[in-house]
Amino acid sequence: MAGLGSAQVMEKKSLTLEGARKVIAAAKAEAQKLNAPGGVIAVVDDGGNLMALERLDGTFAAGANISIGKARTAVQFKRPTRFFEELINSSGKGRTVMTALNDFTPLIGGVPVEVDGAIVGGVGVSGAASAAQDEQLAIAGANAFKPAMAMSGMDSGSMGSMAMPAVTYFDSQTVAAAFVKGSVLVDGSQGRNYMVHASHRDQAGMAEVHTLDADIIYVLKGGATFVTGGTVVEGKSIEPTEIRGASIAGGETRQLAKGDVIIVPKGTPHWFKEIKGPFDYYVVKVR
To answer: What is the pLDDT of residue 99?
Structure first.
């Protein structure tokens, strides 16, 4: 019977008070780095219960309730609150009825806290210089346990010694084959905070925004007219952290050629407006 009982019980990771404080410390460190004028940082457990809260100097009084609401929304729906604000605001969708849900705060600045594939809580930030900065602080807090997965604040039992990650190697034939149509060489699984794409284009693409990933682009062959910044036209969320649009209004235009490197920070609109192909380039995505 002991075997049957153990089969019906699943070990669950949970966030401790020490872990919640670690999340807040990481968000505060990001605030200091950005010289953020204020902000309230709230951390909840996987049930949405408040575990820790810290109000930075200069933050408006209502920031506490808003940050708690963002953290609860992120953990209850298991995705960043940016997804809901953009869903409600985007043209043609108008999901304003969602705002009637209890304990639902569809404002940018809430992020789930995840460890080893399990969501153990949520962090919400309100009252920084902008919604984007709220989110940046929240992401820094949520990443407190990455990539080393420091478990000092987690109830998960003995984790044993951490194995060194394996070296990844692709021979020249494999790489050449990947560039024929464009493919992912290394994805973001197994706790990696980076991806490597062997990208290929024969024609212009859509405008893109990656809210969590920075793109490091190295051009191998061909050329392109590349636009960064500005405003995405007809932008829509295709995933919680990915936005696509028809084009970009404004922005800065550059001509990319073989050997060029360009780094696109997370949250920055970018668009391959014209292609002088075939156009091959590496993209290293860093989260």
So the answer is: 54
